[in-house]
Design brief:
- The protein has 7 helices and 7 strands.
- The chain is of the alpha+beta class.
- It has one domain.
- The strands form 3 sheets. A 3-stranded antiparallel sheet has the order 5-6-7, with no helix packed on it. Strands 1-2 form a two-stranded antiparallel sheet. The chain has a two-stranded antiparallel ribbon with strand order 3-4.
- A hairpin with a 4-residue loop joins strand 5 and strand 6.
């Protein structure tokens, strides 16, 4: 899910030498807060969670996977795998030549998103098969390229809407269609 970048702004001739500064976005997380109950998992509950996930509701299975994260052995193995993957040399194949050239710049790539957030997103992808994150625009000065901060969410808020044939995510603003699934 992406949040649209701020358009416009106000002139700030005294502070920016005649450059326009774009108004900063408020720091808002639209993810619900919840308490994870990690003590009551039985094989039957795991089977029910898998069945619900196969029907499009990831809430219970996400909670089970998050409970697995609390085991130091699981956390260690996943950390080794994700940070090992992020440490590999950066290469791109195929696609638009301009996009490949822009992304192949190692210095730019390292500033796009924090390694810890990318690792969290990969961890969800490895364990659950899906990762959910919000791209939040970082305030910028007029003329600078737009950069984003990645905020990883628990996939427990992701569900499949059979009637509309799309994945949706529950936010504090209500259900929203997941970008890229239209």
């Amino acid at each position: 899910m992406a949040v649209s970048p701020v358009q416009g702004g106000s002139d700030n001739a005294s502070a920016g030498g005649g450059m326009r500064a774009i108004a900063p976005l408020p720091a808002v997380s639209r993810e619900y807060q919840y308490h994870l109950d990690s003590d009551n998992w039985t094989p039957d509950k795991v089977r029910c969670a898998i069945s619900a996930a196969e029907g499009g509701n990831l809430e219970s299975l996400s909670d089970f996977v998050e409970t697995m994260f609390s085991d130091d052995r699981v956390d260690g193995v996943l950390g080794t795998r994700t940070f090992g993957l992020l440490g590999l040399p950066l290469t791109f194949q195929g696609g638009d030549v301009r996009a490949v050239e822009a992304l192949s710049n190692q210095e730019v790539w390292e500033t796009l998103h924090s390694e810890s957030e990318l690792s969290a997103l990969l961890t969800w992808g490895i364990t659950l098969g899906v990762g959910l994150a919000q791209r939040i625009p970082i305030p910028r000065t007029y003329g600078q390229p737009q950069r984003y901060k990645l905020e990883v969410w628990s996939p427990r808020w992701l569900w499949y809407d059979i009637q509309d044939d799309v994945y949706k995510v529950d936010t504090t603003d209500g259900p929203e269609i997941v970008e890229g699934d239209r």
